[in-house]
Amino acid sequence: MTDVTNTPATEYEAELGDYFALMKPRVMQLVVFTALVGMLAAPASVHPVIGFASILFIAIGAGASGALNMWWDADIDAVMRRTAKRPIPAGKVEPREALYLGVALSGLSVMMLALAANLLAAAMLAFTIFFYIVIYSMWLKRLTPQNIVIGGAAGAFPPVIGWIVATGTFSVEAWLMFALIFMWTPPHFWALALFMRSDYDDAEVPMLTVTHGRPLTRRHILAYTVLLAVLAIGTGFTAVGGYIYLTVAVVLNALFLVGAYRIWNRDEVQAEADSYLVERKFFRLSLYYLFLHFGAILIEASLRGWGLA
Fold first, then answer.
1. 83 and 29 housed in the same domain
2. Looking at the 3D structure of the chain, how many domains does it have?
3. 127 Cα distance to chain centroid
4. Are the CB atoms for 81 and 201 separated by under 8 Å?
5. Which conformational region is residue 240 in: left (phi greater than 0), alpha (psi within -120 to 50 degrees), or beta?
6. CB count, 10 Å around CB of 102?
7. What is the pTM of this model?
8. What is the pLDDT of residues 110-165, one digit of tens each?
9. 260 with 159, same domain?
10. Which residues constitute the domain of residue 5?
11. Residue 261 phi/psi, 5° resolution?
12. What is the C-alpha separation between 46 and 26, in angstroms, rounded?
């Protein structure tokens, strides 16, 4: 990280939307949804007020992580096309403001989740923020091509936290939901890295495409997708699964496997000829993949709650 905390004043006054953008609202949506599913799929009821407050504080914790990540990665965000318009590199928010916002929201979210739910849930939220900022952003991201593999755990903790809010304990089912996100993350980001060809090179981030080349990246996408399909379909036979989830999982993972095979079964000449159309389609499908799987888990939990499953 370059020293960006003492940069000159921003080019113009920051607006409320700029601070909200610091919290990565798109990522926050996934965090909130998977945490909510984890909480509702648990075999214990949660008072609506406690549940709402808990999800709110988990969302604030996710926003805190986003702000701290943008503070730390401001130097590389500025040279990547995909991130150059973020608030800090665009000159809308000063780096120190993002740092202060992230630290304040981190403390607030953890403290309030402890009061609203339980200490274990708050401790897991604190560990998730620490993992994302220190383990992934500050350490792994610029050190190893396994950055997104190990660092993906940060985005996989929310359903576990939601489950703990409801039950106060860990369980196999919660870790299955964790594993679903964890195994999805590498093929999702590697597909992005394939068609955002120069971004990671320009930023000198050791993504697998940069350190080991695109052919190996394509093989890794296929391998992880196969493992993900086994895990996702297998989850249908557990306590959080059911016929609806299993149907969704089979269809989605069949499509995902076909997409991964098509990525594997081509070279850079073919990819450049069609502007990485296959990789882009796979990436777009991956955006729906988790929402649909966790949506199916939520439906199954609702049916069980109504005594229909």
1. yes
2. 2
3. 15
4. no
5. alpha
6. 24
7. 0.93
8. 999 999 999 999 999 999 999 999 999 999 999 999 999 999 999 999 999 999 99
9. no
10. 1-170
11. -65, -40
12. 26
